[in-house]
Amino acid sequence: MSANLSEGMLRTDRLSVHHLRAGPATTAPRVLLLGGSNFDLRYKRAFLDTDLVHHFDIATYEPRGIGRTEQPAGEWTMADYARDALAVMDALGWDNTCVIGESFGGMTTLHLALTAPARVRAMVIASATAGGPDHRSYDISTFLDLPRHEAAAQAMCLQDTRSLDLQGTNPTEFATKLAERVAFETAFADPSITNGGYSRLLDARRDHDVTAQLTAITPPTTIIAGAHDAQATPHSQRALAGSLPNAEFHMFKAGHGVLFTTPGAISLTIDVLKAATAQDTAVAGDHTT
């Protein structure tokens, strides 16, 4: 784990968010991590076990609707999530940053780059699409109407199609993984589902569509996809990379959680962000000599 870690509420000019900041003891390049739709930091902490926190000053937070972050009144849009990210950067005193966006966080990252392009230096986007009728990620709000056990089973098979085979070839292992998923979703439900915040987030997610604006998103971008992801299909993620002016596409043998379950994806992310922040490292070195 990182040498330095702090966590707690952060007041911005839009809302108070539960945030976490981790990184090496010395000065390091800044990276904003935007997590998925169920990014409750009580449970979603896999990034702390990667080498990201040894190379970068990572800041992240629970999005509105999730966990302990404040929930403003009214309907929410993806633009709200982008402006929330900017407000967090302002509260941290960050004029610009590289951004890692996973799943819903990848959608937010695209809107952030449209809202404030000068403040996004480079992006790594995993398991996210441009949206719209041709490349929409699966509408996971439909799972809210299902019994938790059934919703968990469907989500597992959607996020990693290999689970369908596992269900038939090794039902014991499938049952173990399903029990873990149900336990997570049961814990996550309080408060994010019971207070309606998750549903409001998914309403905003459903309207995500930057298809017509992709040519205006110019920061260097790395798209990371899982070959077995049926929630954000590799086809749609490849199309996203092909439509962005300055993007490259990488696919790994993984599912929707490719970013933090695949060592190669983390290594690629570190290399990309190191290259994007090489000048920061040089400057930091000058300050310490």
Keywords:
289 residues; alpha/beta; 8-stranded mixed sheet
Give the helix/strand layout.
Blueprint: E1 4-11, E2 16-23, E3 30-34, H1 52-55, E4 57-61, H2 78-92, E5 97-102, H3 104-115, E6 120-126, H4 148-159, H5 162-169, H6 171-192, H7 197-206, E7 221-226, H8 234-243, E8 247-252, H9 258-261, H10 263-276, H11 278-288
Parallel strand pairs: 3-4, 3-5, 5-6, 6-7, 7-8
Antiparallel strand pairs: 1-2, 2-4
Helix pairs in contact: 2-3, 4-6, 5-6
How would you characterize the overall build of this protein?
With 289 residues, the protein is α/β, with parallel strands linked by helices. The chain has one domain: 3-Layer(aba) Sandwich (Rossmann fold). The chain contains 11 helices and 8 strands. An 8-stranded mixed sheet has the order 1-2-4-3-5-6-7-8, with helices on both faces. Helix 4 crosses helix 6. The longest helix is centred in the middle third of the chain and has 22 residues. The chain is globular and about 50 Å long.
